[in-house]
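Hi team,

Filling in the usual template for the complex we talked about on Friday. All components are listed, including any nucleic acid strands or ligand strings, so the model treats them as one assembly.

SUBMITTER: L.P.
PURPOSE: interface mapping
COMPONENTS: two
RESIDUES: 618
SEQUENCES:
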Amino acid sequence: MALTGRWMTRDAALPVLPDDALDALPKGDTLGFDIAGLESWDSGFVAFLWDVKRAGQKTGVTLRTETLPPAAARLLGLLPDQAAEPPAQTGRKPGFVEQIGDRTFAALTETGIIAELGAQAVKGGLQAVAGRGRMRMADLLANLTDAGPRALLIVGVVNFLLGAILAFVGAVQLEKFAAGIYVASLVGIAMVREMAAVMTAIIMAGRTGGAYAARISTMLGNEEIDALEVFSIPVSSYLVLPAVLSLTITMPFLYLYGCLIGMLGGFVVAIAMLDVTGAGYFHYTVTAFGIGQFLFGLSKSIVFGAFIGLTSCRIGLKAGRSAADVGVAATRAVVVGIVGVIALDALFAVIADVLNI
Amino acid sequence: MPDAPMTPDTLLSMRDVTLAFGPKLIQRGISLDIRRGSIFAVMGGSGCGKSTLLKSMIGLLRPVEGRFEVQGEDYWAATPARREAINHRFGVLFQSGALWSSMTIGENVALPMQMLTDLPPATVSRMVALKLGFVGLSNAVDLFPSEISGGMRKRAGLARALALDPDILFFDEPSAGLDPITSARLDDLILNLRDGLGATIVIVSHELPSLFRIADSGIFLDARSKTPIAHGSPAELRDHCADPQVHAFMTREREEGDSTP
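RESULT (copied from the run log):
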């Protein structure tokens, strides 16, 4: 076989050996190379030689590699005789019904695991209260600071604007009926019953839930979780409990804060747009909702906090170990957090209807 | 020898290079010459700045002082575009492979070719198969980095380093964390690649058997005085170096008067 000219990868015209090129040669024959006309070569040349080597293996022709440039022969020696076999297809694709079944079982299993994680966290929490806990207070404090004071600004801004938007929309409609003052009731009820709790939970799902999931899945990648397990330090009390507890503790306070700031937002818009006095607005706000509705909102915020803490930790713990998996875990924690909060809120609405709150 | 006149054979050289992270001095007074086609070892104890020296050679850390030349061209004085062109001659194997985790092994090897060359996709996939064939990973094209062992990840990193047919290869602790047999096979592979590709190789390592086997010359960095204390091949340093610390390192004995267990 005579090989001449330049054999550089970047020339992009590297020949591919036809499949039947060596078929004419009898089995057991040898193939030498004439490289007198070879000018320059790089790995593209070796790629072609590899084709020849594999074709030779198939037809039983031996290559006389000593007739090649020594360096190329050396590289060719590193390469296997056979092309990589495509990996065997494992299993068949499950049918539609099977897929539904699989998903249902997976969802039920997941619910069970989250419930168990929650139970462990509650147990750890009770032990901590009883003074026998193994949670480090420093972790709880760090988590509390992050989920509490550091979230005040964004929770405040969003709730203020939300209250202002509600008042604005309400004012336009209510003024038509000369009932402008009822903007105060509208904003009050909406914030206390729904908006403050839901919006704050959505903010916390995006801000804190995503961070928990990313942190835990990074720890997983660094084998930090494995190290905890080997020491048999329960992941539930070292990681999950401080996360869930801090969100459960701060969420009611953030809810209360969100309510007040939202009403302030409504107040500012009402004073600016309508013919209402400050005292009037205050009066209509406090008489708008009863203590029952306030407690309803408050308990929602506690449930949302626990839910976000638990799901984000669980999503972090079951993530893969690569950088891409950290991104997936963070995204999933935010999505599950937001969708879950809204779904729970719908459930609460049904409960409220039954209980006549 | 640091002060020997530069021969046309010299591919990489350093003159009085000082490396520091901010105010923290890592090494000073580094001078070295690396011949074309040789395997040059950067040796020294843990924390002496071996990897930092490597970083300054591959363009990740600018030396505070001194010159680093690639084929007579001052690397750090070159324009960024020129530096990029020089970098295309480099292939780097990072300590733990540093494979991009969101891509398969095949995509990891293909990416540099796709981003930096105009090769048609068919040629790229042929080259990917070839480079993975060199390191014995033909079967792992479609696996993700998280699905293969540490040794395989290193070899995949090596295949990626070879993606652009570099003529200068940098290896950061290639055999760290590998068993002796895998490590010896990697040494064979390095020697074969050097001879096959005609590449120049700079290797950071403290695996003595591997150093004795493959390195032609080298430099020994001292963590205490923060300066190189010996130049020469690992075997020369072991047999002829008078410095007690170097001798102790190369023979795995404790220094006299050193009572730490």
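MY TAKE: Strands of chain B lie at 10-21, 24-35, 39-44, 65-70, 73-74, 90-93, 168-172, 200-204, 217-222, 227-231. The interface with chain A takes residues 101-102, 117-120, 123, 126-127, 129-131, 133-136, 138-139, 141-142, 144-146, 162, 165, 189, 192-193, 195-198 of chain B (CB under 8 Å).

Thanks, L.
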